[in-house]
Specification:
By secondary structure, the chain is mainly α. The protein contains 4 helices and no strands. Helix 2 runs antiparallel to helix 3. It starts with a helix and ends with a helix.
């Protein structure tokens, strides 16, 4: 299945998914500039708090 996906989209599924999420986030920020990064991260499936918490 991975090879089939890559042959169609030209990239691995993980790379495609990240690119899709980033494009969605960019469009969402342009449409709703008041949205918080935490809310946007939740909408795109990113764990913003875990990734940005300094320990």
């Amino acid at each position: 299945m991975k090879q089939c996906f890559k042959s169609i989209y030209g990239m691995p599924i993980g790379t495609w998914l990240l690119q899709y999420r980033m494009n969605y986030a960019a469009e969402r920020l342009l449409a709703s500039p008041d949205i918080t990064i935490a809310d946007l991260a939740g909408e795109t499936g990113c764990d913003y708090t875990r990734q940005t918490t300094a320990e």
